[in-house]
Amino acid sequence: MLRARLFTQLCSERRSCCPHFTIRLDSGKFKPSRDQRQTVNRFNSFVVGDSYVKEAARLHPKSRDEIRRRNNTFCLADRVHESEYSQLKSPPEPAHQLVITLEPNEFTSEKYEVYGNYQTVVHKDLPQDITPQAFKRFLCSSPLRREVMNTEDGQERILGSYHQCYRLDGKLVAIGVLDLLPECVSSVYFLYHESIQKHAPGKLSALREIALAAEQGYRWWYPGFYIHNCPKMRYKNDYSPQHILDPESLAWLHLDSRVLRLLDQRPFLSLTTAEPGSTLEGAIDDGEADVRDAKRPKIDGEAQATRQQGGSSQVANQEGMRHEEDENDGGVADSLFNTRMPGIVSIAEMMEVDLDHIALRLSRNRPLYKTSDLVGWESKRVTDWPGIKASIAELVAAVGPEVSRSICIDMARGE
Predict the structure, then answer these.
(1) DSSP per-residue codes, 401-412
(2) How far apart are CA 281 and CA 173, in angstroms?
(3) Among 61, 187, 254, 403, which is most exposed with the fewest C-beta within 10 angstroms?
(4) Could you tell me the end-to-end alpha-carbon distance of the chain, in angstroms, rounded to an integer?
């Protein structure tokens, strides 16, 4: 799923001209490349300056073991913090003061100035298209609540949407827009001032976000969707080892040369549709099968038989409905279950999911209700589309039965 401002979108890769895939990186297994290491080292050298290095070596000498260890190993978590002003010993003073902070995703004039410069210089936006309202909608709006989670080992982990702000000599020069979730750091957007473009700020921010995921226990780093036929997305392959989510089976695959070759051949990739000669079974990440299977509700015998016996006719009906929809210039909407969208729970599986106890908010000043409290709810079926029960079934199929147990559908937002 993709979060865009206050909305969460689930896209149908099968129908897309340029399918986009979810990818992620295990921060604990990440090994920076030589180019990435050099990028960090060059930036650190720029920040502290030659004079600081020489004078600090004289005033604060390191042992031979410390020097040998630094020269022979590259610890990402240590190296990305190395030139921060708070980490430097003084005297002497560095050539520049680098301060990096994690701040609430709120509007400020200095953030807006960076946004305006980035949109103008990098994206060639016209000045009249750059407004404070656009910045707020795009980079300050989020449905996530900021809170602190207590982990099992007694540590605290902050959650919510944040701006990772990079300041050089007191001036804000870059902003990383991050969603911090219980088990991941999700990179939403990154923008920077043209004055630091020569330092490869995109690489620096990605490496710092990976380090954040490792240091704070989030583990996974999500760099956003990967679109294989978009040249601007190819840089995401530079961070490895990464995994790509099979949109059909919801299994995580190693994003290796085999997967990339298949993506060269076809825009939509799925384990369940791969040809026998190009099987990707060996690419499934170890330990992910149980997680994938747990996302599917258990099916009883009757529903299982219905799904198996009606499979071919269901596909035929879906094909016919797609053609009918394509021929309809009016763009009449169709049930989500007839779109063959990959990754959603099937209609047969939905018949076994408890839809009766989902919380409803019908009015701001009244208590919460359950879906089963709705008039005529029990007489409706998930196949009665369009209809309230069918619509809620579509929502649950998209977000998954597990998530649906903890959601509340707000029908009072228009009040």
Answers:
(1) HHHHTT-EEE--
(2) 45
(3) 61
(4) 28
Q: Token pair of 112, please?
A: 């807006």
Structure confidence by residue, pLDDT tens digits, 131-169: 999 999 999 999 899 999 999 888 899 999 999 999 999
Q: pLDDT (tens digit, 9 = 90+) per residue, 192-202? A: 999 999 999 99
Could you give the CA distance from residue 55 to residue 61 in angstroms, rounded to a whole number? 10
**How big, in percent rounded to 5, are the helix, strand and coil portions of the chain?**
45, 20, 40
Helices (H), 328-359: 347-350
User: DSSP character for 84?
Assistant: B
Pairing outcome for strands 220-222 and 184-192: parallel
pLDDT in tens, 307-317: 333 333 333 33
Hey, what are 120's tokens?
Answer: 């103008």
User: Which of 232-237's residues contact partners 24+ apart within 8 Å by CB, and which partners?
Assistant: 235/202, 236/23
Distance separating alpha carbons of residues 245 and 263, to the nearest angstrom: 13
Tell me the two tokens of residue 153: 């080992």
CB 244 within 8 A of CB 253: yes
Cross-strand partners of 171: 168
User: Quick check: 296 pLDDT over 80?
Assistant: no
Cα 73 to Cα 35, 69, 93, 178: the distances in Å are: 15, 6, 26, 29
The conformational region for residue 233 under phi > 0 = left, psi -120 to 50 = alpha, else beta, is alpha
Q: Would you mind telling me the total number of residues written for the chain in this entry?
A: 415
299 or 232, which is more confident: 232
Domains of the chain, each with CATH number or no CATH? 34-222 (3.40.630), 297-410 (no CATH)
